[in-house]
Amino acid sequence: MRFREKPVALTGDVSDMFCHVRLEPEDCKYHRYLWRGLDMSRPPDVYEMNCLVFGDKSSPCEANYAVIRTTEDNKEEWPVAAAVVKRDIFVDDLYTSCYDDEAITLRKDVTNLMAKGGFPMRKWLSSSRKVLETIPEEERAVPNKNVNSGELLSGRALGVKWDAKSDNLGFALAHIDRPKAQNTKRGILKRLAALYDPLGWASPYVVRAKILLQRTWSRGLQWDEQLPPDLAIEWQKWEEEMIWLKAFSVPRYIYREPSKVWSKFLIVFCDASEVAYAAAAFIRAKSTDGDYVCHLIMSKTRLMPLKTVSIPRGELMACQLAVRLAKSVCEQLGLDKCRVKYLSDSTTALWWIKSEPRKFRPFVANRVAEILSESDPIQWHHIGTKLNIADIASRGTSVADISADSTWIQGPEFLKSEFSEWPVDKVAVDFPEPSQAELKKSVLKAKVAPAKPVIDPAAYSSWIKTHPNNRMDISHV
């Protein structure tokens, strides 16, 4: 997400990262190997590795520690570069975004900072030609002739396709031209796992395959057992649509003109169906000119449990997912949690959220408590089902409905107007009937005992002795 936050993209690679981290001398003996150059006539020579090796489980962690230690030791000299490296480096790849006037200085500072720790930075690439022209050719990912002609690389950024020339992102589908997967449960999982979509652009499409895979489990199918005809038809239709994802492309930079961005809000939609529940987060930025820019920043989908869950409970699970999604996005983009608005079409779930958690049974109480720990009830609003964009993610849809210019990516049209004009809170969130089933039952315990008489005649041999006032002075009689 941070890679999309600012107008200029900047990427770099630590050259031979493991080879620049030395092992402790006492650990070298555990990394011995034999070599005799295929000469069978002599005994092999014994060698010891003195740097990190590929294959050791600890190597990535040790290399990462060396990089962090480098930033800590040199943060006073290069404070900005140290913060960027510590936050935006992923093993040996650096992916960050910045403003045009900062990118040139940042690249130089990162190169000098990493050199202090013995890590040479190579394969620099940027979406800005101005930045590329300042990078020595031996340190760039593209030669001079490509820069001059504007032919930049089209590669990957953390598994997502990135075209540096157009500065667009898409899906890296190297497996799309391979033979189709078998019509088995194993084939569905194999194809589904090959579609890498960390930001949830294709969630409404992917959730269909998730639902299909869940049905294979509920029917007790074996891994290599052929799908029944009804599931096979649905699976074939889903697989044929995957090729349309090759044309999917969205701008890497979320906002149009960074100098005019005035305020930002995060709008999170949530919804549930009988088979899945979903949350979709949109960034909404207002410029100084009064224009609005909306874009899908991230979405998540989850399947309903095999054990039947009521729709109101499913809607509450969607609200819980929305809060978790908003928390993650706010942490990544540095947004305040108070600048988040949540939209749901469930009056029952909203009534639960606006009530005290202790009033409900554990299932509802625990989820409401988590929701209220990360949000305020006044941030939650009701919206009609037809306007809830998360609805298609909870039910599934075709690839054709999630193109770059679709409502799923650009957001509903009302997001580009003032909040006072939004079609929200048109229905009163009072005490819905389904909510009553989740209320705790109040039980009043009382012990009933027969009342004892003030005076028990059986305890006395004479009525006169029962009380002093009953005694008579017989001397006067």
What does this molecule look like?
The protein is α+β, with helices and mostly antiparallel strands and 477 residues long. It has 3 domains: 153 residues, no CATH class; 63 residues, no CATH class; 162 residues, Nucleotidyltransferase, domain 5. Helix content is 30%, strand content 18%. The chain has 13 helices and 15 strands. It has a 5-stranded mixed sheet. The protein is globular. It starts with 7 loop residues before the first strand and ends in a 67-residue tail after the last helix. The C terminus is likely disordered. GO terms for molecular function: nucleic acid binding. This is Pro-Pol poly. It holds the Pfam family Peptidase_A17. InterPro entries: DNA/RNA_pol_sf, Retrotrans_Pao, RNaseH_sf.
Task: Offer a few descriptive terms.
single chain; 477 residues; five-stranded mixed beta sheet; four-stranded antiparallel beta sheet; 15 strands
The number of distinct structural domains comes to 3
Order of strands across the biggest sheet?
13-12-11-14-15
Proportion of helical residues: 25-40%
Please identify the structural class as seen in this structure.
alpha+beta
Pfam families: Peptidase_A17
GO molecular function: nucleic acid binding
Protein name: Pro-Pol poly
